[in-house]
Design brief:
The complex is a heterodimer of chains A (about 120) and B (about 110).
Chain A lengths: L4 E3 L2 E4 L5 E6 L6 E7 L6 E7 L2 E5 L6 E5 L5 E5 L8 E8 L10 E2 L3 E5 L1
Parallel strand pairs in A: 2-11
Antiparallel strand pairs in A: 1-3, 3-8, 4-5, 4-9, 5-6, 7-8, 9-10, 9-11
Chain B lengths: L3 E3 L4 E4 L4 E7 L4 E9 L6 E6 L3 E5 L2 E6 L4 E6 L8 E9 L8 E2 L3 E6 L1
Parallel strand pairs in B: 2-11
Antiparallel strand pairs in B: 1-3, 3-8, 4-5, 4-9, 6-7, 7-8, 9-10, 9-11
The chains are: A mainly beta (about 120), B mainly beta (about 110).
C-alpha cells in the first residue's frame, strides 16, 4: 500500500540558511500534519492542513511557514535556521472527511541537521 | 507538567514475557487514544486506537483505557525481539478541529532473546 512520502530524507544546512521540506500524503488523504521530533523527545505538533486550508497550529516558530497545494502535497518552509532546529520532521496524513480522527499515518521523516 | 506522562524506560524483558506500557493524562478533553510504535530513525507506526473505556484486543496487543482514572495501557503478550522499539501513546481532544496528536514521551522497550 502507498505510504506517506517525504523528501529529502536528510538535509544539512548552516545557520541562517533556509530549508524546504516536502510531504506527499497517501492518495486520497485530505489532511496533512507536520510534527517535529528532537533527539530523545516525543513528536511535537507544528501545523496541519485540511483541504488546503490551515486547520490547526501548534508550537511552530514564526520563522516557519507551511502550505498545502492543490494536489494535497505540503511543504514546510524554514528560514533563518538555528542550531535548535536540528530534528526529525515528520509528516502524517489522514482521510478526515467522515472518518475517525485517529487514523494518522506517518512518513519516514526528514532529518534536518543545522551546523 | 506535560499533559501526557509516560515512563521513558528503558524496559528490558525476556522473550515471551508479557509487557505492560502505561500513560497517564491530565486533560479530560482527550477522547481518542492511540499507541504508536517507533523504531530507531523511523516514523511512528499506528498500532492501536480506541475511544472508549475498556479493553480492545488485536492479536498479541491489548489496549486498555480507564477514563475515570485518566490512565491508558498497552499490553503485549508473548513479546518478541522484533517488538524492541519505542512505544508512544498519543491522544486527541474531543472536538479538536485539527486532530492534533498529543504524545507521551515514549517508553523504550527491549526484548531480549
Amino acid at each position: 500500500a502507498a505510504g506517506v512520502i517525504q523528501s529529502p530524507r536528510h538535509l544539512i544546512k548552516e545557520k541562517r540558511e533556509t530549508a524546504t521540506l516536502k510531504c506527499y500524503p497517501i492518495p486520497r488523504h485530505d489532511t496533512v500534519y507536520w510534527y517535529q521530533q528532537g533527539p530523545g523527545q516525543d513528536p511535537q505538533f507544528l501545523i496541519s492542513f485540511y483541504e488546503k486550508m490551515q486547520s490547526d497550529k501548534g508550537s511552530i516558530p514564526d520563522r516557519f511557514s507551511a502550505q498545502q497545494f492543490s494536489d494535497y502535497h505540503s511543504e514546510l518552509n524554514m528560514s533563518s535556521l538555528e542550531l535548535g532546529d536540528s530534528a526529525l520532521y515528520f509528516c502524517a496524513s489522514s482521510l478526515t472527511s467522515g472518518r475517525p480522527p485517529y487514523e494518522q499515518y506517518f512518513g519516514p521523516g526528514t532529518r534536518l541537521t543545522v551546523t | 507538567q506535560k499533559e501526557v506522562e509516560q515512563d521513558p524506560g528503558p524496559l528490558s524483558v525476556p522473550e515471551g514475557a508479557i509487557v505492560s506500557l502505561n500513560c497517564t493524562y491530565s486533560n479530560s478533553a482527550f477522547q481518542y487514544f492511540m499507541w504508536y510504535r517507533q523504531y530507531s530513525r523511523k516514523g511512528p507506526e499506528l498500532l492501536m486506537y480506541t475511544y472508549s473505556s475498556g479493553n480492545k484486543e488485536d492479536g498479541r496487543f491489548t489496549a486498555q483505557v480507564d477514563k475515570s482514572s485518566k490512565y491508558i495501557s498497552l499490553f503485549i503478550r508473548d513479546s518478541q525481539p522484533s517488538d524492541s522499539a519505542t512505544y508512544l501513546c498519543a491522544m486527541i481532544e474531543r472536538n479538536n478541529a485539527g486532530n492534533m496528536l498529543t504524545f507521551g514521551g515514549g517508553t523504550r522497550l527491549m526484548v531480549k532473546p
